[in-house]
């Protein structure tokens, strides 16, 4: 068979149209096309309109909207328009019934959520011309992309609290955590307002994603402010003639507890020694080369569809130059008009304020020495270590970590004892000394020994026996 010419095709179509009314209904040509207008990405809380366009020469039976999940294996009805009864209804539960019919084929979703993200299908059914018991179907689909800006960002120091190393360089890692974003936001670091150029690396132990590499162009030298050696001279000026920091150690605090006669009021011991003494310790080493900043980015999908991003910045710390440096983490996202930002200032610990409770401790009381109003002012979070000058703690240990030192049932022998609280982070160390004053407790019987006393023992009993022997008999 030869190829028909254009004129012959035209004549054939005219012939078909002329003879079409003579053919039975079941032989006539039927058509149904469905198209859906594409959607731009929307932000959580926006209102979305799903519009289904269809063309047909048949009679409409119904329009059904589906939400497709699990890669297309599950189709969930969300809305139906029944043309036979001219009614519409939602297939969602009452608490999630948010669909509104705008027109027969158009559905509005107000205040969309991340869970609304995904493909949708519009199915249109028309009656078959041969019989009303048969319905001809056609469908179209559209992808709804719901974005969510991060709702929380924070910066923490990894592996802290950590001790201070005076003679060895340490690495410091800042971790910027961005939560609630979809898609994953881009995360980058700045130092004193300037973008840090970093070396991007991938850890083999984490699931690395390529996003969030803003500012990755290789190593950068320190900015001009960091090259100022004012801080270095100031830090080194605190060292003593032998190169050691000027720390105060009172190895033999004077004992100020004195037995009082009955009727005398208790009074605190009077000394020229101050209540608290603070000394700071800085490292003796100086970094010889400019630091290299290493950057990694890990993305963790969450159950609600958002992505948690953990961006890490690691470099070799130089306390003389990094102390008081301002580091900021900035997060950019297509749903944000401007980046989100959070910042931290690196700082070596300064002398914490110590509080003793009760204020007038008596023999047998439980005494607490607590760090007050300090942890929120220093970053990274410091590590607190308690020691007793020229002696062990009441429980026999050499030191104890924590923000509080508890002394159970203090004996009289602890009066005038000196305690040292060492606050340290990778930028420096600070010692604060405080003296404990213990008063007599008139409510305690003289013949009742304190369980923590090492002196009220057999020798005291022999002394009491001796006194009773010398007294005359009545």
TrEMBL record:
Quaternary structure, from the entry: Interacts (Ig-like 1 domain) with NRXN2 (via Laminin G-like 1 domain) in a trans-interaction manner.
Role noted for this protein: Involved in synaptic inhibition in the brain. Selectively regulates inhibitory presynaptic differentiation through interacting with presynaptic NRXN2.
Any Gene Ontology biological process: homophilic cell adhesion via plasma membrane adhesion molecules
Membrane topology: Lipid-anchor; GPI-anchor
Protein name: Immunoglobulin superfamily member 21
SUPFAM superfamilies: Immunoglobulin
Keyword Signal belongs to the record: yes
PROSITE patterns per record: IG_LIKE, IG_MHC
Entry GO terms, CC: adherens junction; postsynaptic membrane; side of membrane
Keyword Signal (UniProt): yes
InterPro entries: Ig-like_dom, Ig-like_dom_sf, Ig-like_fold, Ig/MHC_CS, Ig_sub, Ig_V-set, Nectin/Nectin-like
Keywords noted in UniProt: Cell membrane, Disulfide bond, Glycoprotein, GPI-anchor, Immunoglobulin domain, Lipoprotein, Membrane, Postsynaptic cell membrane, Repeat, Signal, Synapse
Disordered, as annotated region: 243-271
Limits of the Ig-like domain: 24-138, 352-437
Alphabetical list of SMART domains matching this protein: IG (SM00409)
Compartments, record wording: Postsynaptic cell membrane
């Amino acid at each position: 068979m030869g190829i028909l010419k254009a004129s012959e095709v035209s004549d054939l179509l005219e012939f078909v149209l002329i003879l079409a009314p003579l053919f039975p209904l079941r032989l006539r040509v039927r058509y149904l096309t469905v198209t859906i207008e594409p959607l731009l990405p929307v932000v959580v809380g926006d209102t979305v309109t799903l519009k289904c366009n269809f063309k047909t020469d048949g009679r409409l039976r119904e329009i059904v909207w589906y939400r497709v999940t699990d890669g297309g294996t599950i189709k969930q009805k969300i809305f139906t328009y029944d043309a036979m009864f001219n009614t519409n209804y939602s297939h969602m539960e009452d608490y999630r019934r948010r669909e509104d019919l705008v027109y027969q084929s158009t559905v509005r979703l107000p205040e969309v959520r991340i869970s609304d993200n995904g493909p949708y299908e519009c199915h249109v059914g028309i009656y078959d011309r041969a019989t009303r018991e048969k319905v001809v179907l056609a469908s179209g689909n559209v992808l709804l992309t719901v974005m969510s800006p991060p709702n929380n960002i924070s910066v923490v120091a990894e592996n802290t609290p950590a001790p201070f190393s005076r003679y060895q360089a340490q690495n410091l890692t800042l971790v910027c955590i961005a939560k609630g974003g979809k898609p994953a936001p881009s995360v980058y670091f700045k130092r004193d307002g300037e973008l840090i150029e970093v070396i991007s690396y991938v850890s083999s132990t984490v699931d690395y994603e390529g996003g969030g590499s803003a500012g990755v162009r290789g190593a950068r030298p320190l900015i001009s402010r960091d090259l100022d050696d004012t801080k270095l001279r100031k830090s080194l000026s605190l060292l003593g003639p032998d190169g050691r920091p000027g720390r105060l150690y009172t190895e033999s605090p004077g004992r100020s507890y004195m037995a009082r006669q009955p009727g005398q009021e208790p009074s605190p011991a009077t000394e020229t020694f101050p209540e608290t003494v603070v000394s700071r310790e800085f490292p003796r080493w100086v970094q010889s080369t400019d630091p290299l900043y290493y950057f990694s980015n890990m993305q963790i999908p969450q159950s609600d569809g958002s992505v948690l991003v953990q961006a890490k910045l690691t470099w070799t710390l130089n306390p003389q130059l990094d102390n008081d440096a301002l580091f900021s983490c900035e997060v950019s996202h297509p749903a944000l008009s401007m980046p989100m930002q959070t910042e931290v200032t690196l700082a070596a610990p300064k002398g914490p304020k110590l509080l003793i409770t009760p204020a007038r401790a008596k023999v047998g009381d439980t005494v607490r020495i607590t760090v007050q109003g300090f942890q929120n002012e220093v970053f990274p979070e410091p590590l607190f270590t308690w020691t007793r000058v020229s002696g062990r703690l009441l429980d026999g240990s050499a030191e104890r970590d924590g923000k509080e030192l508890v002394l159970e049932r203090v004996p009289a022998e602890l009066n005038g004892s000196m305690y040292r609280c060492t606050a340290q982070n990778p930028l420096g160390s600070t010692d604060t000394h405080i003296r404990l004053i213990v008063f007599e407790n008139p409510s305690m019987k003289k013949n009742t020994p304190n369980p923590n006393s090492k002196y009220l023992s057999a020798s005291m009993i022999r002394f009491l026996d001796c006194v009773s022997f010398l007294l005359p008999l009545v």
